[in-house]
Specification:
The protein is 72% helix and 0% strand. It is mainly alpha-helical. It has a domain of 142 residues. Helix 2 packs across helix 8 and helix 3 packs antiparallel against helix 4. The longest helix has 62 residues.
Length: 215
């Protein structure tokens, strides 16, 4: 029970009203009560601060793991687009779902509108061959294209790249580590499709001999 200032004043007044009790006998009790209350309050505040700090850190860690799941989906989407459009330095407005439309768009001359048939054929073949390989891993563009976008919008992506050669960077390029994060973080209803995205990302990384995450 926390001692209130009003309680202390009432105790002093009660003591003076009793003829057989000295004020000196009540004063140490009041001070001692205050000291105990103050000490107890400091302990409680310290424990609350410790608990709040721990909860805050756990919240940040949990959010980072969610962002890592979103980063897996983002990296695969980006990887597919760069694979189909290797000459494009910017992919603003490009998605897995609109690849066929973008192939038509960029194979036309911007001024004359003339179609570069060879270039269009090359891009179309790259797209078809990649989709055929990913399909063997369970990937379906009509399903996993919107799914990946939804995951990115839901969980976000990593705010900054890890330091080079750090343990964090090594973890981000470890398929087993990423798999454990997905299993730990993702809801069960998303698990199968998220693991499919991760498998496709690992496959593409092996094919081009590059890290899983390209910054």
């Amino acid at each position: 029970m926390t001692l209130r200032w009003q309680d202390t004043l009432d105790e002093g007044r009660f003591s003076t009203d009793q003829p057989n009790l000295s004020l000196k006998s009540s004063t140490p009790l009041t001070i001692q009560s205050l000291e105990k209350s103050s000490s107890l309050k400091k302990i409680v505040q310290k424990e609350q601060f410790s608990d709040n700090t721990q909860l805050s850190q756990e919240g940040r860690d949990s959010k980072k793991l969610e962002r890592l799941v979103g980063e897996i989906a983002f990296q695969l989407e980006r990887r597919i687009l760069f694979n189909v459009f290797p000459d494009q330095s910017r992919l603003y407005g490009f998605t897995v779902l609109n690849i066929p439309e973008k192939i038509i768009q960029i194979s036309k001359h911007p001024l004359t509108g003339k179609v570069d048939e060879d270039y269009r054929y090359d891009l179309s073949q790259r797209h078809l061959q990649l989709m055929d390989r990913l399909r063997m891993l369970g990937y379906s563009a009509p399903i996993h294209g919107p799914f990946a976008e939804s995951i990115v919008n839901t969980y976000g992506i990593l705010k900054q790249r890890p330091d080079a050669y750090s343990a964090e960077e090594l973890g981000y390029n470890n398929p087993e580590f990423l798999r454990s994060i997905v299993i730990k973080t993702a809801p069960s209803k998303f698990l199968k499709d998220l693991l499919c995205l991760l498998s496709c990302l690992c496959f593409m990384a092996r094919q081009d001999s590059k890290p899983l995450f390209l910054w």
